[in-house]
Amino acid sequence: MRLTERQRAILDFERTWWQLEGSKESAIRERFALSTTRYYQLLNELLDSPAAAHYDPLVVRRLRRLRTQRRAARFGVTATQPPAR
């Protein structure tokens, strides 16, 4: 599977958004014409893609780690403990 131009742009944005003026949310709306909710839905789908991991492995690993930590905090488990099924 190949990444689309927009998918590559999302990964590139995640690598550098903190260098931009203003809030991340406003930059998302301006750059991608998406709500932040839709942007994060697309980003989460993208993080599970092997093509994304191949394109930018450092960003994808960092974002996967953050996603795992946030989910663990939300459900009250440690990040190293697998969630109950």
Number of domains: 1
What is the count of helical runs?
A: 5
What order do the helices and strands follow? Answer: HHHHH
Give the CA-based shape. globular
Beta-strand content bin: under 5%
* Helix fraction bin: 55-70%
Mean residue pLDDT: 90
Low-confidence stretches: none
Number of strands: 0
| C-alpha-based Rg, rounded | 14 Å
Between the first and last Cα atoms, what is the distance in angstroms?
30 Å
Counting helices, strands and paired strands, the structural category is mainly alpha
What composes the largest sheet? none
List the helices and strands and how they pair.
Blueprint: H1 5-16, H2 24-32, H3 36-47, H4 50-55, H5 57-75
Describe the structure.
The chain is mainly α. The protein has helices at residues 5-16, 24-32, 36-47, 50-55, 57-75. It has one domain. The N and C termini lie far apart (30 Å).
Summarize the structure.
The protein has helices at residues 5-16, 24-32, 36-47, 50-55, 57-75. With 85 residues, it is mostly helical.
Notable features of this structure?
mainly alpha
